[in-house]
Specification:
SDH C-terminal domain-containing protein; 10% strand; 162 residues; shikimate 3-dehydrogenase (NADP+) activity; two-stranded parallel ribbon; three-stranded parallel β-sheet; globular; 5 helices; mainly alpha
Amino acid sequence: ALRSLGFRVFLWNRSPDKAAELAAEMEGVEVVDALDDAEATAAMEAAAGSASNPAFTGVRAVVCTVPASAGLTLPPRLLANAPVVLDASYVPPQTALLTQAAAAGCPCLRGADLLVAQGVRQWQLWMGRKAPEYAMSAQVEARVAALLEKQRAEEEAAAAQS
Protein backbone atom coordinates (compact mmCIF):
# COMPACT_ATOMS: atom_id res chain seq x y z
CA ALA A 1 0.00 0.00 0.00
CA LEU A 2 2.80 2.42 0.84
CA ARG A 3 4.51 1.78 -2.49
CA SER A 4 1.27 2.58 -4.33
CA LEU A 5 1.34 5.98 -2.59
CA GLY A 6 4.83 6.69 -3.90
CA PHE A 7 6.80 5.69 -0.81
CA ARG A 8 10.12 3.87 -0.97
CA VAL A 9 9.83 1.08 1.55
CA PHE A 10 12.74 0.09 3.76
CA LEU A 11 12.43 -2.95 5.99
CA TRP A 12 14.31 -3.64 9.20
CA ASN A 13 13.77 -6.66 11.41
CA ARG A 14 15.50 -7.73 14.60
CA SER A 15 16.28 -10.95 12.70
CA PRO A 16 18.04 -10.06 9.41
CA ASP A 17 17.13 -13.43 7.88
CA LYS A 18 13.44 -12.75 8.48
CA ALA A 19 13.77 -9.30 6.91
CA ALA A 20 15.33 -10.77 3.78
CA GLU A 21 12.68 -13.49 3.61
CA LEU A 22 9.84 -10.98 3.91
CA ALA A 23 11.39 -8.56 1.43
CA ALA A 24 11.71 -11.38 -1.11
CA GLU A 25 7.92 -11.77 -0.98
CA MET A 26 7.27 -8.08 -1.71
CA GLU A 27 8.28 -6.18 -4.80
CA GLY A 28 10.47 -3.12 -4.33
CA VAL A 29 11.11 -3.45 -0.60
CA GLU A 30 14.68 -2.69 0.45
CA VAL A 31 16.25 -4.24 3.55
CA VAL A 32 18.19 -2.09 6.02
CA ASP A 33 20.59 -4.22 8.04
CA ALA A 34 21.09 -1.89 10.99
CA LEU A 35 19.26 0.99 12.61
CA ASP A 36 22.28 2.74 14.02
CA ASP A 37 22.35 6.38 13.07
CA ALA A 38 24.99 6.41 10.35
CA GLU A 39 24.35 3.02 8.77
CA ALA A 40 20.57 3.25 8.48
CA THR A 41 20.54 6.77 7.14
CA ALA A 42 23.40 6.08 4.73
CA ALA A 43 21.60 2.99 3.41
CA MET A 44 18.38 4.93 2.85
CA GLU A 45 20.20 7.85 1.23
CA ALA A 46 22.13 5.49 -1.04
CA ALA A 47 18.93 3.71 -2.07
CA ALA A 48 17.28 7.05 -2.82
CA GLY A 49 20.22 8.20 -4.92
CA SER A 50 22.12 10.46 -2.55
CA ALA A 51 21.60 12.91 0.26
CA SER A 52 21.93 15.73 -2.28
CA ASN A 53 19.23 14.20 -4.47
CA PRO A 54 16.22 16.57 -4.26
CA ALA A 55 13.92 13.56 -4.48
CA PHE A 56 15.24 12.35 -1.13
CA THR A 57 13.30 14.12 1.57
CA GLY A 58 14.21 11.83 4.42
CA VAL A 59 11.99 9.46 6.29
CA ARG A 60 8.30 10.37 5.84
CA ALA A 61 6.68 7.54 7.75
CA VAL A 62 7.66 4.86 10.25
CA VAL A 63 5.45 1.80 10.71
CA CYS A 64 6.53 -0.32 13.66
CA THR A 65 5.27 -3.84 14.32
CA VAL A 66 7.99 -4.74 16.83
CA PRO A 67 6.46 -5.83 20.17
CA ALA A 68 6.36 -2.96 22.67
CA SER A 69 8.25 -5.13 25.16
CA ALA A 70 11.36 -4.75 22.96
CA GLY A 71 11.53 -1.05 23.89
CA LEU A 72 12.49 -0.08 20.33
CA THR A 73 13.57 3.50 19.70
CA LEU A 74 15.16 4.96 16.57
CA PRO A 75 18.31 6.95 15.98
CA PRO A 76 17.20 10.60 16.33
CA ARG A 77 18.41 11.39 12.81
CA LEU A 78 15.65 9.16 11.39
CA LEU A 79 13.04 11.36 13.09
CA ALA A 80 14.61 14.66 11.99
CA ASN A 81 12.00 15.37 9.30
CA ALA A 82 9.11 14.66 11.71
CA PRO A 83 7.76 11.58 9.93
CA VAL A 84 4.38 10.15 10.84
CA VAL A 85 5.04 7.32 13.31
CA LEU A 86 2.61 4.45 13.66
CA ASP A 87 3.28 1.82 16.32
CA ALA A 88 0.94 -1.13 15.86
CA SER A 89 1.23 -2.27 19.51
CA TYR A 90 -1.96 -2.01 21.55
CA VAL A 91 -0.46 -2.60 25.00
CA PRO A 92 0.95 -0.46 26.35
CA PRO A 93 -0.77 2.33 24.45
CA GLN A 94 2.30 4.58 24.78
CA THR A 95 5.42 2.72 23.62
CA ALA A 96 9.05 3.81 23.86
CA LEU A 97 8.99 4.62 20.14
CA LEU A 98 5.84 6.76 20.40
CA THR A 99 7.28 8.62 23.40
CA GLN A 100 10.50 9.31 21.49
CA ALA A 101 8.65 10.32 18.32
CA ALA A 102 6.28 12.68 20.14
CA ALA A 103 9.24 14.35 21.86
CA ALA A 104 10.81 14.85 18.41
CA GLY A 105 7.63 16.55 17.16
CA CYS A 106 6.41 13.67 15.01
CA PRO A 107 2.69 13.04 14.47
CA CYS A 108 1.96 9.70 16.18
CA LEU A 109 -0.65 6.98 15.80
CA ARG A 110 -1.13 4.15 18.28
CA GLY A 111 -2.12 0.61 17.44
CA ALA A 112 -5.59 1.29 18.86
CA ASP A 113 -5.94 4.29 16.52
CA LEU A 114 -5.12 2.04 13.57
CA LEU A 115 -7.60 -0.59 14.70
CA VAL A 116 -10.42 1.96 15.00
CA ALA A 117 -9.61 3.54 11.62
CA GLN A 118 -9.65 0.14 9.95
CA GLY A 119 -12.89 -0.82 11.66
CA VAL A 120 -14.62 2.44 10.74
CA ARG A 121 -13.67 2.09 7.09
CA GLN A 122 -14.68 -1.57 6.97
CA TRP A 123 -18.03 -0.76 8.60
CA GLN A 124 -18.71 1.92 6.02
CA LEU A 125 -17.77 -0.36 3.12
CA TRP A 126 -19.92 -3.26 4.36
CA MET A 127 -22.86 -1.35 5.76
CA GLY A 128 -22.96 1.52 3.29
CA ARG A 129 -23.48 4.12 6.01
CA LYS A 130 -21.57 6.16 8.57
CA ALA A 131 -19.90 4.07 11.26
CA PRO A 132 -20.51 4.70 14.97
CA GLU A 133 -16.91 5.86 15.33
CA TYR A 134 -17.20 7.18 18.89
CA ALA A 135 -18.74 3.91 20.14
CA MET A 136 -16.16 1.86 18.27
CA SER A 137 -13.33 3.93 19.70
CA ALA A 138 -14.74 3.66 23.22
CA GLN A 139 -14.93 -0.13 22.91
CA VAL A 140 -11.35 -0.39 21.67
CA GLU A 141 -10.09 1.89 24.46
CA ALA A 142 -11.97 -0.18 27.05
CA ARG A 143 -10.48 -3.40 25.69
CA VAL A 144 -6.97 -1.92 25.64
CA ALA A 145 -7.43 -0.79 29.26
CA ALA A 146 -8.56 -4.31 30.21
CA LEU A 147 -5.56 -5.86 28.45
CA LEU A 148 -3.23 -3.42 30.19
CA GLU A 149 -4.76 -4.25 33.58
CA LYS A 150 -4.44 -7.98 32.87
CA GLN A 151 -0.79 -7.52 31.92
CA ARG A 152 -0.09 -5.57 35.13
CA ALA A 153 -1.80 -8.24 37.25
CA GLU A 154 0.23 -11.00 35.58
CA GLU A 155 3.47 -9.07 36.15
CA GLU A 156 2.59 -8.50 39.82
CA ALA A 157 1.76 -12.20 40.28
CA ALA A 158 5.05 -13.23 38.66
CA ALA A 159 6.99 -10.79 40.85
CA ALA A 160 5.26 -12.10 43.98
CA GLN A 161 6.26 -15.67 43.11
CA SER A 162 9.94 -14.81 42.69
